[in-house]
Amino acid sequence: MMPGGHLATALSLGAATYYTTGSTEAATGAFAGGFLIDVDHYLDYLVFEKQWRRPWPTSFLRYYFMNCLKRVVLPLHSAELMLVLLVVIFIHPWPLLVGYWVGAAMHLLFDIVVNGDYGLKNPVLFYIFSYRAFHRFAAEKLIKDVGVSPEAGKHPVRDFFVRWRPIVEEDRNTESSTSALPEGEG
To answer: Where are the domains of the chain?
Structure first.
């Protein structure tokens, strides 16, 4: 799911959490887990992609929308971290942490369903940190080779809010083979 989609779902979850619980802390945690969990993408960009000379949000978004990734560490997108947080919640059910866990679980579920549909080689295992570590966090081993449109990255701020998936070139071979099928069989 693209960032704008996560922003919309996190705001909705935060509002629903506040409406049902009356807890500002739980609602804040839900928003943080649903959207701010993606801060690890930015950390990957700066630290592991070594893009610290271009730290601006537009450069970061353009880099991701153009599918330039080489390493995918994403420590917050981790089943292991979610398990540790769940144990802590059972010991100390702080509303902020419970909200964060629920928001992060929603975020990861949407990532698996939406990103797994088109971009990940193994959608469920991708969200296990040790699986990514086993593959040395190499993007080419974890992410499908997705064609990127020449339009990708040209309007990163607009695309952040409008697009829920990266701009992908249409597979012309599929188009031409489908149009060659007899009517009613495509």
So the answer is: 3-164
